Protein 1
Amino acid sequence: MSKNTRFILVSLPSSISPTNDKDEALTALRSAVTTDYGTVFPFTIPEFKIGTLDALVQQADELAKLEGGCEAVVGKVGDSLRTILEGDEGKIAQQKTVNDKPAEQYLKSFHWNKVKYRADKPLGEIIDTLHKEVTSIDNQVKDKYNSYNQIRTNLVTLQRKQTGNLSNKSLSNIVPPSLMIQDSDYLETHLIAVPRTITKDFLRTYETLAPMVVPRSAVQVAADDEFTLYAVTTFKKHSHDFIHKCRESKWTPRDFKYKEGGKEEESKELERVGKEEKKVWGEALRLGRTAWGESVMAWVHVLALRVFVETVLRYGLPLNFVCGLVRTTPKLAKKVRSSLDVSYSYLGGNAFGRDKKGRVTKDDSSTSADMQAAGHTGDSGEYSPYVCYEFEIQ
């Protein structure tokens, strides 16, 4: 979905139409927004079982927190897809679907999923179902992507051992077994990767670096563009001191023990981890695609519940309202809200007034604070005379 798209869910009493007709009320909403600022689509919300006023107020608070959680999960799943697809926006967009269609199309044709979230259940039960679903999605994606990242890290480490320089690559196919002293009680061979720019310093000082370094034991094993690999023999009881001094001199001791068949074993391990990485990559991609769609679906249903609960609290019973989805842009969203304020400020009673030029003005800060404390504010924290929620799906 375009980053330049913003949606606004607006709920208004059908009484904005002289006939109290919902279709006419939706037409009035379209006229208030105008096509210059956005496009209005019908957004159908079923009627739910309503409990006590106290319960509704508590549910409004729960839904506000749950919506924030849904948005966060959608964002995290999107970040996971971005990581696994290496930031390829075209491929990422292909994975971001809801019920196998683009998110915007899903929103425009939204219908409450009565199979998944039964509308005949109490509101509290529906909210609990949505909360459990979103938590489950978050945990599944987190576990799978942690697993993939671990396998990916292992693969990169193994690949680096095959393609790196002499300070970090595998030495299995570089160091001949005859070079290493084995089964000696006193002597030990050390492999040291020395930057090529300081090999002369190494050859001049290695014998006096620590006690009991075998004189003239340094043998060049291999060299690349960055390092030269030397084998040096010391007495075992002073090996630790020698290794420590090498590191202080910015030489890299290589931890290497000759193992027969080690080269073949490393190749097999690289092949095995490579196959495992591809397998888990596919699983993570499929899960990411599914999880993104399901988390967006849950988010939109939570938004629908927020609109419903706030509509009951704001307009009272019997319920007779119309809900519209406004598609606009972040820049035009303020103009949409201003147009709606002009048309429907009277719904806010004393919270809105007009100046001498007829422009809508909000009442003093104390009134706004009271309204905010009562929960009658939009996402911006400012009081709105109508039910209104803005959101973007990235």
Protein 2
Amino acid sequence: MTSVLLIVDMQNVFTSMTTNCLPNILRLSTHFKSHSLPRIFTQHGHTKEELTPPYKNQLVRKWGPSGSIAKGTSDWELMPDIAPLAAENDNPIIHKNTYDAFINTNLAEVLEEKKIERVVVCGVMTDCCCDTTARSAFDRGYETWLVEDACGTANKKQHETGLNGFGFAFGEVLKTEDVVQRLQ
């Protein structure tokens, strides 16, 4: 079964949420690379048009323009530990403007082109973009794993809520070590 590591929104704006998960994301990335398995990165952001009234993007309506990530800003950029990984071997970066990395993007086409059957999701935020994208992958027929110690969010309660909901009805919630062992 062909697997992909989907590294979600590891951007400067979320640095404070990545203290515990970043080492595991780096370990997973190294493992996938050493086994010649693909890695795909997502980057969340909004255009000037989306941040200008009237707001057509639902997330901008929810969080307001000051609470949204503007494309091209330092907050929007991939974190220093992640940016070089995304640049290796022309790994795809999926630019998105909503929680679900499949909406308004070419992610489905990229997965189809790579003949992916399993999506392994890590990154931030556990209960928003990671969970939503993982559920969407499941709904599209992919076996989907959400890596609990390679995801981060604002607090422990939100993290556990995202993991529990996904694990109950969608796919497996695994630790980094479990993923590495299963993909030997």
